[in-house]
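ok so I'm stuck.
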Amino acid sequence: MAERTNQQVYPLAPSNGNPRSDEESNTLQSKELKRKKRVKLAIYIAAFAVFQTIVILVFALTVMRVRTPKVRLGTDVTFSKLNTGNETSPSFDITFIAQVRVKNTNFGPYKYDSTTAFFKYQDEQVGQVTIPKGKAGLRSTKKVSVTVGVNLNALQTTSSNLGNDLKKEVLTLNGQAKFTGKVELMFVMKKKKATEMNCTMIIYLPSKTLKDLICK
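replied:
not stuck anymore, here's the structure
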């Protein structure tokens, strides 16, 4: 019993035969932490690159995309003069005030040149008006008021429908114009854009009002 009590106990050595110090353990832990930080940094950089690519694509497809402006007549037409003949002696002499609306959906202004709008009864030109040059701001609508005079009588027209239209108390006029100009983006990019106005007005003669307006 005395011999077993006096035996000395020694600590077990590592499996590789070399004891690992606290300094080596700290070094390994430090290297592992640095590796994890590098992995996280690489993930953040990759995510930022993907996000930046998406932003650039969205910017190119929306902001930098040049769309064709639209030109229409407004529905708020005021007739200052409306004289008509009858079925046997058909004619009309009309003056009205209308709004030409230039709608620009681009992220930059649309500057257009002066142009002329022509008004027709069927295929015959009955009036015209000059639309001065102007600018429709970014994502806005430019409204231009114009005074238009149109007239026609039986001696001027080759159409036999004017008398019938006056009998029905409706008159159909068509307004057309072509606009040319440039869209400016970011103050450096300019792109030429042409657009057309093509609107049909249906006038109800007894009340001197616009019954319908159809624009293509």
